[in-house]
Amino acid sequence: MYCIAIHGGAGSLDASALTPELEKLYHEGLNRALNAGYSVLRHCGSALDAVRNAVMALEDDPLFNAGKGAVFNFDGVHELDAAIMCGKTHEAGAVAAVRHVRNPVLLAHNVMNGSEYVLLSGEGALDYARRAGVALEEMSYFSTPGKYRQLLDAKMQRFARPSDTVGAVARDMHGNLAAASSTGGLTNKRFGRVGDSPVIGAGTYADNATCAVCCTGDGEYFIRLVSAYDVSAMLRYRGISLEEACRIAINEKLTALGGEGGMIAIDRTGKIEMTANCATMPRGWMQSDGRRGTAITFPEATIG
Ligand code: ASP
Fold first, then answer.
1. Contact 282/5 with Cβ under 8 angstroms?
2. Of 80, 171, 173, 192, which residue is 20 to 30 A from 285 by alpha carbon distance?
3. What's residue 157's pLDDT?
4. Where is the active site (predicted)?
5. Coil, strand or helix: which one is 218?
6. Binding residue per annotation — 67?
7. DSSP 161
8. Residue 143 contacts by C-beta under 8 Å, 6 or more apart in sequence?
9. Which residues, listed in sequence order, are joined to residue 167 by a DSSP beta bridge?
10. Is 204 designated active site?
11. Is the CB of 60 under 6 A from ligand 1?
């Protein structure tokens, strides 16, 4: 069984504000990304390339808080975080607080393949991007009116909040797992804040022996709980199911600390899990047995 699952961020959407037009945009964006990832898997490609391509499609979609459409930070600019991890080799690449990079997940993949490092940040990451030849954009490329309104709201209420982060997990026909995440982080974030998405083990993790996981929501909690790795460790050391491990990570541990969010995961057999402790998490899945779907709210659409 080869398969892919994606998410477009937990908790940021007010279910009551979901108009039919907005719902349609989410389903369309999720389906585009699913197709981008799944076509890699169908053509015998790797889980790693599948999650990279799916996340790039979400980064190019202004609806989501990654790449074009990333949220504004306190200073009114976009600082982007992304990570990718290969479950077969345990290689990983990540970038944090990077500006101008059109597809941060592509840069993360470059860091993984072309450098001796795992995580590059800020100006240094931008310098690396120039040398790697990845596409750069003017800062205005990333800006959208909707995310600017979110910044104004956040400034009025003096908060920093998660929104529409993206992620993908996949299993390819060789049984290899991979995970990738990308985000603009929190609206109104300050002081070079970096969330869980580019932190390997916190927001993004993959291990062929267990599972691939992407988290979304209140990043500080996922960092403290090392949530993505925690799910993998529960499978490895306690032998419990993916479903039970995700439930413990989100409904017990995250909830107990007062955090809000969700995760998507695929285990080594191709079982998919998508869970959250909030009302919405746009998500989609596609499996080689023909099952596919997209959903936004909970408890809408469970995977059979
Ligand atoms: N987890 C992301 C962060 O804290 C935000 C999100 O998932 O929307 O940067």
1. no
2. 80
3. 82
4. 165
5. coil
6. no
7. B
8. 72, 78
9. 7, 181
10. no
11. no
How far is ligand 1, taken at its centre, from the CA of residue 74, in Å? 15
Radius of gyration of the chain (CA): 17
- Atom of ligand 1 minimally distant from the CA of 194: 9
Exactly one of 19, 165, 275, 280 is catalytic; name it.
165
Q: Is 259 in the pocket of ligand 1 (CB under 6 A)?
A: no
Point out the ligand 1 atom lying closest to the alpha carbon of residue 163: 8
Amino acid, res. 215: C
CB of 182 closer than 6 A to ligand 1?
A: no
Q: Which CATH architecture has domain 3-297?
A: 4-Layer Sandwich (3.60)
Residue bearing the CA closest to ligand 1, atom 5: 162
ω into residue 145 within 30 of 0, thus cis?
A: no
Q: How far is the CA of 174 from the centre of ligand 1 (A)?
A: 31
Find out whether 211 and 234 touch, Cβ atoms under 8 Å.
no
Residue 139 tokens read as 């800062």
Contact between residue 83 and residue 108 where contact means Cβ atoms under 8 Å apart: yes
DSSP readout, 67-78? Answer: STTPPP-TTS--
Residue 143, token pair as written in the block: 């800006």
Cα 45-228-278 angle, rounded to 5 deg: 105
Residues forming a β-bridge with 206: 212
What is the distance of C-alpha 106 from the center of its chain?
13
Whole-number Å distance, alpha carbon 195 to ligand 1 midpoint, is 6
Which residue carries 């969330």 as its tokens?
195
DSSP 160: -
For residue 304, the model assigns a pLDDT of 47
| Domain residue limits, the chain | 3-297
In the prediction, which pLDDT does 14 show? Answer: 75
Question: Which positions of the chain have pLDDT values less than 50?
Answer: 304
- Say what the pLDDT of residue 300 is: 66
What was the pLDDT predicted at 17? 77
The pTM of the full predicted model, rounded to 2 decimals, is: 0.97
